[in-house]
Amino acid sequence: MQNDSSGSILSLEGIAELYEHMKLEKLLSQNCDLEKIKYRVEINQYYLVIKRKQFTANSREALLLKLYDYFFGAQNRSLTESYREWMLWRKEIQTNSKTLRENANEWKSYIANSELADMQTKDITIEHLEKFLYSITADFAITSKRLTNIIVVLNGIFKRSVSLKLIPHNPLADVDLKTFRKRCRPKNSTKDNYTLEERRKILDYLAEREDIYALAIQLDFYLCVRIGELLAIKYSDIQNGFLHINRSMRGTYEMDDDMNFSVGKITNEERIKGNQSTGFRQIPLTDKALAIVERTHRLYPDNEYLFMRDNKQLIPNTFNEELQRICKALGIKYRSSHQIRFTVATLLYDEGVSITKISSLLGHADTATTWHYIRKNNPDEATINAMKSLLD
Questions:
Q1: Which of 57, 68, 157, 205 would bridge 63 by S-S if both were Cys, CB 3.0 to 4.6 A apart?
Q2: What spatial distance separates the first Cα and last Cα of the chain, rounded to whole Å?
Q3: Does the pTM exceed 0.70?
């Protein structure tokens, strides 16, 4: 394996990225002196002067692409170069870092090693796209959702190229995507919930513990919130027996000029995933849930947020790592914090709470989304008896 300048081991994808970067630098070095690229710290700007013409960009990679366009013509960009420009532009306009990372994963997994990647963007036709889509959907290899994610990336690249007047039309717009959706693998989720008995075992196991992780996990089993909402709760959010969901924790990723991602900062934002009007909501707390809240506040009265350790908020990764350790100790199959949300929603449904009420508690704008959370894989006894009575 190859090491980067920091001594860490590069992944195969990292080596491929580095190779493409080196090819671009080698090509450009034949036309200009890249060693003369300078950086203005005060305005975060890279620049190079060629024949009294100044080229500037917010990153070295973006500057190299501008130089490539100058010497070889932007209209001759390969799809890979168009992808890089699209990603760097979206970083500049502050596209959500999680979205960028998801797009980068689809590119690396499906498009980067295809014939499309090395083709000039302007030369890609409907036939080329159909050939590519037939190949990735062969033998029901991917789900419809994955196909949609791949199409989002291609669409974004082509639309950006149209906007820059590098191509006259988005060829993907003329592809009949229904044909390829029929070739996708049906989604049959293998995820399941914690049972009522497993929930009880976990709560009993944690009942005597007073560490912050144990308290956070206990409260989660009394709610149906997103993990980011749970970890952003403040004691002041609890009023008159209700939890007011006012904010959510969000983790960011930092993308460098070579399209590599690293974990960035954690923020707490007063915006909720999905529909804003339904995301901000009130959730009734049971007596036991309130007792967990009060116990946590009594033990850690100076915390800004309810669940903090060493003056730092708990984060989803470490929350789930602790949950996994607990499940292993109890001999219970581990499911992530997201499945706790599914679990509580399903338990409420089993006890007769209407789907509209559950939808409101989950913060969904559409009950169709809520039904996805209700894990009813097997018919209940009442259904079985009704079928026997009617059909036998």
A1: 57
A2: 66
A3: no
